[in-house]
Design brief:
By secondary structure, the chain is of the alpha/beta class. The chain has 14 helices and 13 strands. About 40% of the residues lie in helices and about 15% in strands. The strands form three sheets. Strands 3-2-1-4-5-7-13-10 form an eight-stranded mixed sheet, sandwiched between helices. It has a three-stranded antiparallel sheet with strand order 6-12-11. Helix 2 runs parallel beside helix 13. Bound molecules: 2-acetamido-2-deoxy-beta-D-glucopyranose (NAG) (6 copies).
């Protein structure tokens, strides 16, 4: 049928930016809520150690002073201490406590304290990241968090300096910064961003924390208003929730690794769902690779005012996808565990 043929060729043409293979390192910005769940730290390990990635900036969408210090210490450990960090304001010295299940520990302030460096540049504690000569951009004490950039300014300067259509943004938390960026400049997004990869929602429909847990109106604003600006790929709660990773990093990883220690502090040795690491892995690889496949060819994601979402199967929209696993959850977990170890063991080996 003529219309079906037209549709197929439209899908093919427009899918190119989504499926394009990278030969050079991919420009990546992550927007992370590195504070509560430790999977943000796992995602940062991948982004900071992958040879496929040119990590341009890290924006943080929760207002804890410990978050940028922890991110800075992790980046410095992997030799990426000069990657700029932005964070929402206002900031408070807040820690995460798992009051829901009383199961999970706190890691951001501990990473900041034990793996950061003192403001005068010397080691603050018997800290274990001495394998890296890089100092964190934002060292302990917590007041240094105020030196982190304004997220929208950081987005704007980073995108402006990048080549056209070259930047992947991985959103692995809440939407304050991206909403503010969208309100600040749709034009820069259209010109510089290759695609937005979002951890949030359930597919094809449902309700997930990143969309409803902070400010559902901002999640709805970003997801619904980004449509047409750049391709978007969504990674849902059901995807990462079935993939439990971190065990090998905790058991076999170097004792000096801050992300290994973060997992131990947070999970007490249990593996953790892989929402953010899987999302960043997809964003880094720039395609479905071995682990993923797309769950749709047409349509778009819609976020309701209450933070629930649903896929709208509209034949006119062909530049949005949601991810599914192509392999078993165990195979995906094994690949993440392998990459965590490769990344952790790469420190001091000329990265
Ligand atoms: C540097 O910081 C450490 C740890 O806070 C402190 O013990 C030390 O006295 C400081 N050194 C100088 C020269 O300020
Ligand atoms: C540092 O930690 C190691 C291992 O836990 C311990 O053996 C050593 O005594 C500590 N050094 C200092 C100065 O606290
Ligand atoms: C951006 O604009 C939208 C609609 O105009 C508004 O709802 C949203 O709150 C704004 N975002 C921020 C972060 O202020
Ligand atoms: C992984 O997949 C198996 C088989 O489908 C399932 O029984 C198991 O519950 C899954 N694990 C998680 C954590 O969802
Ligand atoms: C959220 O809003 C949608 C659309 O109005 C509705 O279908 C859904 O039931 C709502 N979900 C909750 C949990 O209120
Ligand atoms: C520059 C800017 O608009 N930054 C915003 C990032 O998001 C937080 C939360 O909405 C705002 O308070 C900031 O103003």
């Amino acid at each position: 049928m003529r219309s079906a043929q037209l549709l197929r060729s439209a899908v093919h043409l427009l899918a190119v930016p989504i499926a394009a293979c990278a030969t050079a390192a991919r420009n990546l910005i992550t927007d992370t809520d590195i504070f509560s769940d430790v999977d943000d730290a796992g995602a940062l390990l991948l982004a900071a150690t992958s040879p496929n990635v040119n990590l341009l900036a890290v924006n943080i969408n929760v207002g804890s002073t410990y978050s940028p210090l922890a991110a800075s210490a992790i980046l410095a450990h992997y030799g990426k201490g000069d990657v700029p960090i932005g964070i929402v304001r206002p900031l408070a010295d807040s820690s995460f406590f798992d009051t829901y299940a009383y199961e999970l520990g706190e890691y951001a302030s501990k990473v900041a304290y034990h793996f950061g460096a003192s403001a005068n540049g010397s080691s603050i504690s018997n800290h274990t990241s001495s394998s890296s000569s890089h100092q964190p951009l934002l060292p302990w004490p917590p007041s240094n968090a105020e030196k982190a950039a304004d997220p929208v300014s950081l987005y704007r300067s980073t995108l402006s300096a990048a080549a056209d259509n070259s930047v992947t943004i991985a959103s692995i938390g809440f939407f304050e910064n991206l909403s503010a960026l969208l309100n600040s400049t749709a034009d820069l997004i259209r010109r510089k961003v290759e695609r937005l990869v979002v951890m949030g929602g359930m597919y094809p429909a449902g309700r997930e924390f990143n969309f409803f847990g902070d400010d559902p109106a901002l999640a709805a604003h970003v997801v619904n208003s980004w449509r047409g600006l750049t391709p978007m790929v969504f990674s849902g709660g059901e995807l990462g929730g079935s993939v439990l990773s971190g065990t090998r990093l905790m058991v076999e990883g170097p004792a000096t690794d801050p992300v290994r220690q973060a997992y131990l502090w947070y999970t007490y040795g249990a593996p953790r769902p892989s929402w953010d690491p899987l999302t960043v892995l997809f964003a880094m690889d720039g395609g479905v690779g071995e682990l993923f496949e797309y769950g749709n060819e047409i349509g778009y994601n819609h976020v309701f005012a209450n933070g629930s979402n649903a896929w709208m199967y509209d034949e006119a929209v062909t530049d949005q996808r949601f991810l599914k696993l192509r392999v078993s959850n165990e195979t995906a977990a094994a690949e993440l565990d392998r990459l965590f170890l490769v990344g952790a063991n790469s420190v001091g080996k000329g990265l």
